[in-house]
Design brief:
114 residues; 85% helix; mainly alpha
Length: 114
């Protein structure tokens, strides 16, 4: 039973950390997309504000896009917290499994135990 728990801790920790790294990569990708969208939106806004006829259209587009960008930032924040928690859990679980492994896999002296 000790061996099973030790292996489970090591594998669970490694999996948790791997998922955290994947989430971190997705967060970085999302932040890049948001930065690009904000840049494009600023360009569009400056172009549409050149004439008084297109300015209301630019404000309408800007308002809708800003709401979507804010929603994306909120999602990134939520997943960033999850990523940090998974990293801590993964490192702690893996470390605990490694620390316990010598005790779980040692053989008793003088006994022929398997």
């Amino acid at each position: 039973m000790k061996k099973f728990i030790t292996i489970l801790l090591i594998l669970g920790g490694a999996c948790s950390y791997s998922v955290a790294v994947y989430i971190e990569n997705q967060i970085l990708d999302g932040q890049g997309k948001i930065a690009q969208a904000e840049k494009n939106l600023d360009q569009l806004d400056s172009t549409l504000s050149l004439t008084p006829y297109t300015a209301p259209l630019g404000r309408g587009i800007r308002g809708h896009a800003d709401r979507k960008i804010e929603a994306g930032k909120e999602q990134i924040e939520k997943y960033s917290d999850l990523e940090k928690q998974l990293k801590v859990i993964g490192i702690a679980s893996f470390s605990l499994g490694v620390i316990l492994s010598p005790f779980a896999f040692r053989r008793a002296k003088g006994k022929n135990k398997k």
